[in-house]
Amino acid sequence: MTQLKPILSHLDPIIPSSTGKFKSSPYAVHRLRFHPRLTFWSFLFLFFLLLFFFCSPPAASNAGKRRSLQNTAYSARARPGPNWEVKARNSARPQSKSGVTVLVTGAAGFVGTHVAMALKNRGDGVVGLDNFNNYYETGLKKARKSLLERRGVYIIEGDINDAALLGKLFEIVHFTHVMHLAAQAGVRYAMQNPNSYIHSNVNGFVSLLEACKNANPQPSIVWASSSSVYGLNSKVPFSEKDRTDQPASLYAATKKAGEEIAHTYNHIYGLSITGLRFFTVYGPWGRPDMAYYFFTKDILRGKEIKIFEGADHATVARDFTYIDDVVKGCLAALDTAKKSTGSGGKKKGAAQLRIYNLGNTSPVPVGKLVSILEKLLKIKAKKKFLPMPRNGDVLFTHANISLARKELGYKPTTDLEMGLKKFVKWYLSYYGAKKKSAW
Ligand SMILES: NC(=O)c1ccc[n+]([C@@H]2O[C@H](COP(=O)([O-])OP(=O)(O)OC[C@H]3O[C@@H](n4cnc5c(N)ncnc54)[C@H](O)[C@@H]3O)[C@@H](O)[C@H]2O)c1
Ligand SMILES: *[C@@H]1O[C@H](CO)[C@@H](O)[C@H](O)[C@H]1NC(C)=O
Predict the structure, then answer these.
(1) Which ligand is in closest contact with the Cα of 359?
(2) Coiled-coil region(s) at which residues (predicted)?
């Protein structure tokens, strides 16, 4: 209807109507019938009216699309660049005979970059997809992108909610696997922008699963859930069978929703889906919103760091897991994934549905994290201890990884000291080099 309005208002002064000038004129009827100019305008009006009816379905749906884009979060504006189809096809070509073809969503992110690199290094075909949203410094995402580009991995700039883009992508590349790492990560940011979690972790996940279900052949999917689904669960260590119905944050709730949505798509469409519950992943090219990262930044600047404590000064602890160990777990999950059974959007038989913890099995108190950083940076931190605000963070995490060890051969080998050493080395060279190039 919005389309009709400008036309009507444009013709308004000329259309004879029951109100206004024409009615008051005794010649109105006469003029309407015989005035050549008015006859011309009437035909023109009829023409536009018919035109409107012929065009109305697409016009209406366009308007609908525009509205839904406005309603989605800040990041839906991402668009692929010129020649993206050609670049995607080239990037998707495996280098080794046994190589698979993997779509990595969130490829400009921390874990995505490492996984994409590892896949490429062993000869797989890899295409990345990322919307480069500004949740944290986009410069870091761009730098990761160039890193991958130098190795021949192309990242499409686009949103997982863009169904048309995904449809086209699955049409031109036959992905055997999808490594789905795109998400709104972080726990605290939900208090500022709750919608971004729904946009990427719920709507976006469904949009991606729709594309996978429609693809021919259907790919096998491995995706990142989170240790946060254990929420207020106090039984340690966290095992896959433990309850996950008490999320302590919106982030956790969207990851839990993802696990249930995965169940549905597996059940109805025969998609093979594996969920990985990551436990505090850290390392080079890491995420600036995570404590180990901004503690390093603040210690170097001589800024005070806030260390949160539970009730009665209970220490907060995390099962920190080094990125290389997580990457091995991701690749093992891809390699052991069975094929999806559906085709053309229809299920042919039961398909695989798995969930694994990927942790390190050794929780480290945050105080210990800080003392390792102090040693590596050779700077004493200015510490301030504060009671933990109720913003979604949990007191501790601790993974039971015996299932992943048994079925994926997953065996983390890097302890926090060794991992942080590698992180700090990277941090100093990355920001050091940036400072130099800025001069
Ligand atoms: N790093 C951890 O400790 C940890 C722990 C548990 C779970 N996870 C999960 O692992 C995955 C990877 O995390 P990360 O640490 O690499 O985070 P990250 O923020 O560095 O990477 C996520 C990437 O996804 C992209 N993205 C977000 N929404 C998108 C959308 N709608 N369309 C396209 N791209 C989008 C972002 O731009 C970003 O580059 C996420 O699903 C995260 O929730 C991470
Ligand atoms: C760890 O998980 C396995 C199942 O994968 C279970 O058999 C075992 O009892 C758990 N261990 C602990 C200490 O909870």
Answers:
(1) 1
(2) none
